[in-house]
Each structure stands twice: as structure tokens, then as C-alpha cells.
Amino acid sequence: MNLNGVELRRVRMPLVAPFRTSFGTQTARDLILVRVVTADAEGWGECVAMADPLYSSEYLDGCADVLRRFLVPALACCDRLDAPAVAPALAAFRGHPMAKAALETAVLDAELRSRGVPLARELGATRDRVPCGVSVGIMDSLEALLEAVNAYVEAGYVRVKLKIEPGWDVEPVRAVRERFGDDLLLQVDANTAYTLRDAQRLAQLDPFGLLLIEQPLEEEDLLGHAHLAKLIKTPICLDESITSARSAAQAISLGACQIVNIKPGRVGGYLEARRIHDVCTAHGVPVWCGGMLESGLGRAANLALAALPGFTLPGDTSASDRYYQADITEPFVLTDGYLPVPTGPGIGIEPKPDALNAVTVSTEWLPL
Ligand code: SMG
Ligand code: MG
Fold first, then answer.
1. How far is CA 315 from the centre of its chain?
2. Structural domain of residue 76, as residue ranges?
């Protein structure tokens, strides 16, 4: 495949409701969409970094800069580019997995479209629909939380994840358990907001039968997570800490996690995400697909990944209307708690031109 050039498109999509986590509140989703153009196909990738470096060190202006100055020009060296060649071509540039993932995904999408192969089939998916969970932000009151959870349960979500932080942890979990009962699949996500000194507090979550607690401690702190795992009963799931198949293998070997959240952007793309799935499956560690408030483009690709056999827990792959009044693609609609895995070539979906233009802030063409 020969690349003619790459378009970087900055978009801003208002969220239907503010989304508060331990690191901040989002009221709109800023994104970079990467579109690669080849002689026979186009491909799309979504850069899932946030506007500010609060979830991880990457942020959108930084991603645009590294794509423009280093990553896109590095693809000019490859005459016959295919998706597996992208990561090696970018490897000299350290870090920036979200920027790299967006570019690799766009190349992969273009390649699969030109071959007529759906991403799900390419990755080894074994299902045509996936059960969906929903991530519920920190709220101003327990009443507001129960109302939000109730609406999601009524909508059919099969699993609920509560965002927690010190001061918003045991009480919201207790309130949700009391209201919705022990059968509700329930888990929590701290986004690194705790330290080992909080172990006693976190152990107070033990009686509530949570599926998992996600990323309680700092992302670098694998040993701390291994230690915490001995002090609490709730299984530990890592998100921010898992940046590659190697780090997944190390975390598992250390006993730092019993479950892994796989986000393709965080790990440099769908090919590395599949390797993490393979490593975890080989170790008997369940995985699930995380979310970064993606548009329909990123969601389509995540659904393909979530259809692999090792994804045995429901992911944060919620329907379009959980995030956006108007998605840039045909919306993904929940049916009986499931979303369909796209079947068309590549990621299997395209942006609707008018919807895309309505949220576009700027575009930039990088010829190759
Ligand atoms: O896409 O539904 C979604 C968001 C899921 O909670 C979610 N993501 O740490 O797992 C996580 C967070 C990261 C993004 S918070 C803005
Ligand atoms: Mg998380």
C-alpha cells in the first residue's frame, strides 16, 4: 500500500451529560481523527487522548504535534506499507501510544478495506455481538447516582462501573447494592486515586461482591498493586498500568492484577491489544475492552476487539446515546444489552459527512 497523505481532523463533540472521574470533569469530547489516503482506499483512526494530560501523559495538541513532525513523516520510508509495518517504523520515537495507535488503526482500516476484510475477522473475533457495560461518573449526590444507574439498568446495560475516589467509594457502592441488589454486575474504577495507605478503606468494599476494582494505585506501581491484592478480596484490574503485552505479562507474573482492561489507544493499537489478549488468555486472566468516550469510529473498532474469545467480561463499549446526542457515524444502538460487531470491511463504518463537518474544529493535510 502506498500512502498519498494523512489528514488530521480535530473535532469537538458535546457530551449528553458531564462525566466526572477522580482526575477531572469532561463536558465535551475533543478528538483527533486520522484519515489516511492510499491509491485504493481510505482508512480512519481515532486518537483517544484527552485535551489535557490527566488520564495519561498524552494530550491532543501533543499528539497532533508528534503525528505531524515525527510519526506521519516516518511512514514515508516504507514503499509497501501494511499495518504490521507501522509500529516498527514508529518505534524509534518513544512513547505516544495513543498517537501511534490512531495512525496504525487508520492504516489497518485502509488495508482491510482494500482487501475487503472486516477488522473483527482479521483480529480473530468469534462473536457477532458483545454485551455492554456502562461507566458512571462521580455525582453530586447519592440520589443523582441512583437515578443515573437506574436509567442505564432500564436501558439494558448488563454491567455497571462506578467511578470512585477517596470520599466517594463505600457509600455509593452500598447505595447501588441496596437499590439494585446483589445480582447486578458491579465494579469500580479509581483512576489511580488511592495509595497503599488506603488499603483498609478499600477493604471495606469487600462485602459488596464487586467484579473488580480498576486501577486503585499509580500507574507505575505494580508492586503496590501486588501488595494491595493481598490486603483486599475484590479482584484488581489494571488499566493505566498496562501499556504493552510485556507489561501485562509482568503485572500478571507479579500478582499485580487478576483482570486486565484493554484499551487499544493506551497500548499503541489493535495489534498490540490482540497480543495482550493472547498473553492474558494464556495465563487464564479475563480481559474486557475499556472505553475512552469514543465516537462511532473508535467504538466500531473496539467492538471488533471485544468480540475476541478472551473478552469474557462486559466492556465499557456503551451505545452512542450514552455519550452523544449526535454521533458522527450511524449510531450504535443497544439491543438487549448488546451491541452488534460491525461486519463491513475494515472498521466497517464511515463518518456521515454532515455530522462530521458539524463537529469539526480544524483539518490539516499532511502529504507524503
Ligand atoms: O468510553 O464509556 C467510556 C468511558 C469509560 O470510564 C471510562 N474510561 O479509566 O476507564 C477509564 C476511563 C477513562 C476515560 S475518562 C474520561
Ligand atoms: Mg479505567
1. 9
2. 3-116+350-367
Is residue 355 domain-resident?
Answer: yes
pLDDT digits (tens, 9 = 90+) for 215-271: 999 999 999 999 999 999 999 999 999 999 999 999 999 999 999 999 999 999 999
- Pocket-testing residue among 132, 152, 262, 316, ligand 1, by greatest number of atoms within 8 A of Cβ: 316
Cβ count near 176 (within 10 Å): 23
Shortest-distance atom of ligand 1 to CA 137: 6
Q: Annotated catalytic, 163?
A: yes
| Ligand of minimum distance to the alpha carbon of 216 | 2
Asked whether residue 345 is assigned to any structural domain, the reply reads no
Is residue 98 located within the same domain as residue 178? Answer: no
Q: Determine the number of helices (DSSP H) and then strands (DSSP E) in the chain.
A: 13, 13
Are 65 and 94 contained in the same domain? yes
Task: Supply the pLDDT for residue 266.
Answer: 98
Phi/psi for 151 (5° steps) reads -65, -40
Q: Are 130 and 317 in contact (CB under 8 A)?
A: yes
**92, 299 contact by CB (below 8 A):** no
> Residue 77's pLDDT is what?
80
Cα–Cα distance, 113 to 134 (Å, whole number): 30
**Which CATH number does the domain housing residue 212 bear?**
3.20.20.120
Residues touching ligand 1 (Cβ under 6 Å) are 19, 21, 26, 55, 135, 189, 191, 239, 290-293, 316, 318
Residue numbers in the chain where pLDDT is lower than 70: none
The Cα–Cα gap between 260 and 24 comes to 23
Q: Cα separations (Å) of 346 from 15, 104, 112, 277, 321?
A: 27, 13, 5, 20, 23
pTM: 0.97
Residue 41 belongs to some domain of the structure:
yes
Taking the C-alpha atoms of residue 16 and residue 27, their distance in angstroms, rounded to an integer, is 8
Domain total of the chain: 2
Which phi and psi (to 5°) does residue 353 adopt? -55, -45
Q: Percent of the chain at pLDDT above 90?
A: 97
Measured CA to CA, the distance from residue 304 to residue 122 in angstroms comes to 9
Is residue 212 in some structural domain? yes
Cα–Cα dist 276/259, whole Å: 12
- Enumerate residues with CB within 5 Å of ligand 2 (an ion): 189, 214, 239
